[in-house]
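Hi everyone,

Forwarding the result from last night's run.
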Amino acid sequence: MSSPLTAKSHPRLAFIGGGQMASAMIAGLVRAGQDSSSILVVEPMLAQREHLEQTLQVTTAACADERLSAADVVVWAVKPQVLHQALDTVQAHLGAALHVSIAAGLPLKTLSQWLQSQRVVRAMPNTAALVGAGVTGMAAAEGVSEADRRLAAAVLAATGHCFWVDSDERIDAVTAVSGSGPAYVFHFLEAFQAAAEAVGFDPEMARELVLRTAVGAIEQAKRGEPFSTLRSRVTSRHGTTEAALNLLNAQGTPQAVHDAVLAAYDRAGALALELSAPIA
């Protein structure tokens, strides 16, 4: 964990890519007191540059120029498949910045080689960052100092909870759990809403019931008791909840969740190999 940046702490930041995740990070940083005039966003899309300038009052550029060399931190917020191409247009203007990559799948070794730097932090945020409730795992290359760690964590904490892990393999695990996790939750909520509609609720009411039920359960869980204890309290013998849970267990729901997370974990490792293949 790290304290967010404050009004007294204004490192010069540059974002390569100004899409949704970058926008969420910048908005969080500005809310935390970062001076918007200290943020440069390199973004090729005119409409997105104008949006960022109007809503967040940051400086934007269609392509990298000499201003980039002044950045204390460069955040790589582009798709992993195009990061190397983006680097080709940026490399000449990079200074001695700390690099923070939120490009999924690219391991630290590859990032360090491409960036020609050991001051590299690899981060795996999730989409809840868009509403300030994100979860971000971070891993650092060997050349990252304690001061660099604090700075990277402060930047990433602008979108929610962040924490350190010690390897790319652990980032793959983070990807499988919290990175992909929002989709698992949405998948369950989608099915839950459909079931509520099947017992007679209209879509609007079904959605509200499902959301309020989920939010209430999460609030209970945040008090710290084991999930199994909370579940057992709702489950009376021979009652309605027991009937529902027996069916879920009989149809293999726990095993399906287990296998789904492992599938995501395996794919994260495979993706790292694909993305690190030599550039033709």
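The two ends are 39 Å apart (CA to CA).

Cheers,
N.
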